[in-house]
Amino acid sequence: MPAQLVLSLNSSVLGEFPLNKERITIGRKPKNDIRVDNLAVSGQHAAIITILSDSFLEDLDSTNGTFVNGKLIKKHALKNGDIIGIGKHELKYMNDQASAEDDFEKTMVIRPGMASHAASATKAGNEQPAERPFAAAAEGELPLGKIQVLSGPGAGKELELRKALITLGRPGVQVAVITRRPQGYFITHVEGSQPVVNGNSIGGHAHGLRDNDVIELAGVKLEFFVIGG
User: What Å distances lie between residue 79 and 51, 93, 167, 205, CA to CA?
Assistant: First the structure.
């Protein structure tokens, strides 16, 4: 059974929502996966990214903020029983398979200034399948991935992708996550327009990354490569 959210208001249950997609949005507008029709809730208030058995909550620069167990958060790795507060409504996270990690220590965001003078995007390369993991190393060990900033003031900066989930982009503009799985590294859209890999939009599903893929995100070009892959 997938993880789910139980929506309630003043202890009255309004609905149950399975987290059966990688990205679920919560907000006042009808286009959200979970609509909370209340003026205290922003049009697109928050998003939940579910990777394997874990879910990660991110506030989408909402007006009144997103709370977990009474604490204002920007990003939060959800634990079974967490109570998400949005306006006067509550969403209880139900998942007895969630890990015990309790923060987004494993995430990194490219700061807005890094994109201010980025080169314009180019359109090159051929269409690639949405799921295309690179081959694992011998004995099933996943090679270590890295990304290097190719454009803008941060050009040359490198980041090793050692954590299970890393957030990239500009909050409120364009955000994606790169996840490290047994099958390889994948990039998934979170917020804003779809990221581009090798000149092609990645679409709404996880997109497998390969050595030397060029990612365009929030006006910044990044190259993904594998160390010893």
Answer: 13, 7, 19, 24
Amino acid at 147: I
Strand order across the 184-192 sheet: 165-170, 174-181, 184-192, 207-208
Token code pair at residue 90 = 């509550």
Question: Which range scores top for mean pLDDT: 21-30, 120-129, 170-179, 203-212?
Answer: 21-30
Whose tokens are 């000149």? That residue is 199
Give, in order, the Cα–Cα distances in Å from 183 to each of 140, 179, 186, 210: 9, 10, 9, 12
Q: What is the DSSP letter of 152?
A: S
Give the CA diameter of the chain. 55
Whole-number Å distance between alpha carbons of 1 and 18:
9
Cα 50–20–98 angle (5° rounding)?
A: 45
- Write down the pTM of the prediction: 0.53
Provide the CB-side half-sphere exposure for 154 (13 A, CA).
21
Contact between 56 and 40 under an 8 Å Cβ cutoff? The reply is no
Mapping DSSP to helix (H, G, I), strand (E, B) and coil, where does residue 164 land? coil
Residue 51: both structure tokens together = 């990777």
Using left for φ > 0, alpha for ψ between -120 and 50, and beta otherwise, residue 61 falls in left
State the Cα angle at 44 between 167 and 200, rounded to 5°: 50
Structure tokens at 59: 């506030």
- Distance separating the N- and C-terminal Cα atoms of the chain: 35
